[in-house]
Every structure is written in C-alpha cells, then in structure tokens.
Amino acid sequence: MIKFRINIITFSLLAVFFASNCTNIYEDGKDIASVSKTKIKSITVKKLKAKIESEEDFLLIDVRQYNEYLKGNIEGSYFISRGDIEFKILNDEFWEEEYMYTPEKDADIIVYCKAGDRGALATESLMKLGFTNVKNLEGGIIAWDPEFESAQPQSSDGGGCGG
Question: What pLDDT is recorded for position 64?
C-alpha cells in the first residue's frame, strides 16, 4: 500500500512539473510578437538616425518580403527575409555575395520590418543564435518614414507575413 501511495505522489508531482513547463499557445503572429518584444532590446528611430549620422559601424537588416524591400528601404540596409534570417545570418557564402564578412556574435545589428512585429521575431531568433547586440527598430519602416505606407500603392495580394 505504501508503494502504491509513493507511486501516486510521484506521478502527481511529475504531472504538475510537466504541465507547468508547457509552452504557451498564441492567438496569432501579433500575439507571439508582443511576447517577443518583452524579451528583446529595441532602438528608436531617433537613435538609429543618430547612429547613421555619426557613421557608427553597425549592420542594418530589412526582414520584410523582397517585394516590400524593392518598394523602399532604409539606405544601407541588407535584405534577409524573416523566413531566411536564421539560415543566412551565419552563412559565409551569403555574406561573400554581399561583399561582407559574416557578422560576429557581438556585432551591432539592427533589424527592421514594416511595423515592428517581424523585426521583433527576427531579433529574438538572432538572440537565440547567440547574437548579443541585436535590436529591433521600434515601429519599423513606418516609424522611420510615416509617409511610406501612404505613398505605396495598395495591392490585394497577401504575399507576406505579419506587420
């Protein structure tokens, strides 16, 4: 009887342990991005512009879709879509084609997208890959250029993910 009770207690404790370690279930991509934003560092447009004006050495990455990048981007940025960033960021061949060295894990990296959500997800992914000095541009390219969105022709194709 004592062995049975020990087994029940052990099973109950294991069930509580595993239940408490379950991952969250999110409503949508924006919900996931909002959680990511609590785990990452960000940079304001004002601070980014100051870095550019003072000619600081940093890597600026646009994680939108290619068609979005072609419609307009922040000068000096490199295009790596959100879906490819984990695969290309440490790929020497990719960076050789860009005439660049593969970034070091402590490189100053700023990521941006349209409004900040994909950038937050990409920033968190880079942190998981061991990058220690990566930030997301708050508000994305829309914050950089508030007229950017209204200057773009509206299309009906989905073609991209998130904001």
Answer: 97
